[in-house]
Amino acid sequence: MDKKFRFLLIDDSEEVLTKLRSQIRTTIQASQFTFGLEVEYLHVKFDTVDINGVATKVVSKQTIVSLGDMCREKFHYIFSDFAFISDYEANTKLKEQLLRDQRGVRRSDIEGVLLTLEDIKKRYLEIQKDTDFPQMKITLIDAHFINHSGKVVLYTNSPAPFDNYFDENEIGERELEVKRAFENLSKIDFILMHKKFLITPKIEATFTDTFEKKIYFATLLSKYITNEMEYFTLEHMVASQNTLRFKNVRKGAREIFILGLALGAMSALLGEMLFHFLSRPIELILEYFGIHIKESIIGSLAIFVILLIGCFYLLTGLAGKLAKRTEEITNRLSGDDEK
């Protein structure tokens, strides 16, 4: 059973990532098990490049380099902001325009303003062609990011006029966008903060300070993500119970069988030793005291009972030690003795 789980958190806000880093726990205690949570925080930054004579914001090369450093092992979960704001001024103007027009946002509205996980993948595929980009990073990013096979959770705070982008009739398209970034992922979940926490434009307007608003939402988000991490860890533990007791069962059965044979051999050897070494001395002792029971059935039965009782107590003690040893072996093989 895994005792360490790796998570990747992706956001374009340093304030949000700092808050998450301070709130999310690194260990979870469940019964006698302690699970480690290794969390990587990827800060998405932007470069301005010339595309057909137009200055365009793209995911920075440094972001891709940092991603390569974080992909040294597989991730069980990836949490990410759904959209990364490359141009805050344009985003603010878009919001104001949509409110004036009293309509929701369209895909064409956010192009060049908001980037997504698919844009991270596209930028990586461009950068990996650079001769100075290390082959090791390409291998790790391909294995643990592009071919991520775990769960991806997208979070977003998108009250009106952006909320329609995540309506029931639109959520399928959003999932397809994520799948274009991770073709092998197992499951996609969305944390729609504006719905889950009932964040309306009126509530959002109460935050006059942008930094204060980010910290508030980051606090809510960190609590939710921590719960998701704990749930995943406990879910994994419960699911593992079906096979936990039978881990290395062939090895365990072999060791227990060998101990059983040893006990049987000891019992047989002890019985033979008792008969061989004690039968003649006991007979001589009885003859010395004038008790002749060689032909006496009662006397023979008495000696047998005495030997039986002695062997019972001796073998019971040995069996107790065997049972304790068997329990220790079972716990070791199942992992129950690991702390």
Overview of this protein structure:
The chain has helices at 14-23, 61-70, 88-101, 107-110, 117-127, 135-146, 168-181, 193-196, 201-205, 210-244, 249-288, 297-334, and strands at 4-11, 27-30, 33-43, 46-51, 54-59, 77-81, 84-85, 114-115, 151-156, 187-192. The chain is an alpha/beta fold. The chain folds into 2 domains: 4-244; 249-334. The strands form 3 sheets. Strands 2-3-1-6-9-10 form a 6-stranded mixed sheet. A two-stranded antiparallel sheet has the order 4-5. Helix 1 packs across helix 10 (210-244) and helix 5 (117-127) runs parallel beside helix 7 (168-181). 19% of the residues are buried.
Global morphology: elongated
Helix tally? 12
| Number of strand elements | 10
What strand line-up does the widest sheet have?
2-3-1-6-9-10
The main β sheet shows up as: 6 strands, mixed
SSE class: alpha/beta
Q: How helix-rich are the residues, as a percent range?
A: 55-70%
Radius of gyration: 35 Å
Strand content: 15-25%
Features:
12 helices, 10 strands, two-stranded antiparallel ribbon, single chain, 6-stranded mixed sheet, 339 residues, alpha/beta, elongated, 2 domains
